[in-house]
Amino acid sequence: MLHLKVIVIDEVLAKNGVNDIISGFVRSRDVSIKTLVAICEDDMDTFFSKMKESSEPGGTAL
């Protein structure tokens, strides 16, 4: 997973705390420490539906 550029986290999960999640990623060394973390106000199903509708062939911009 070293190719990941962004990790998207649901706002509800973020409000409960993400220290353990982020620590796990860093400790496992499977995710680059340069990876960005974004918090999404929508639920994940809505977020990815919107992304699918608006994405162009060849890539997706967040």
Please give a structural write-up:
The protein contains three helices and two strands. The chain has 62 residues and is α+β, with helices and mostly antiparallel strands. A two-stranded parallel ribbon has the order 1-2. The longest helix has 11 residues. The protein starts with 5 loop residues before the first strand and ends in an 8-residue tail after the last helix.
SSE pattern:
EHHEH
Number of helices: 3
| Radius of gyration from the alpha-carbon trace, in angstroms | 13 Å
Approximate strand percentage: 15-25%
**Main beta sheet: strand number and arrangement?**
2 strands, parallel
From the N-terminal CA to the C-terminal CA, the straight-line distance is: 18 Å
Unreliably modeled segments? none
Report helical residue fraction: 40-55%
- What sort of overall outline do the alpha carbons produce when their principal axes are compared? flat
Q: Which structural class best describes the helix and strand composition? A: alpha+beta
Going across the major beta sheet, what is the strand order? 1-2
Mean pLDDT: 80
Number of strands: 2
In short:
With 62 residues, the protein is α+β, with helices and mostly antiparallel strands. Helices cover 44% and strands 16% of the residues.
Question: Would you spell out the secondary-structure blueprint of this structure?
Answer:
Layout: E1 6-10, H1 11-16, H2 19-28, E2 36-40, H3 44-54
Parallel strand pairs: 1-2
Keywords:
62 residues; alpha+beta; flat; 2 strands
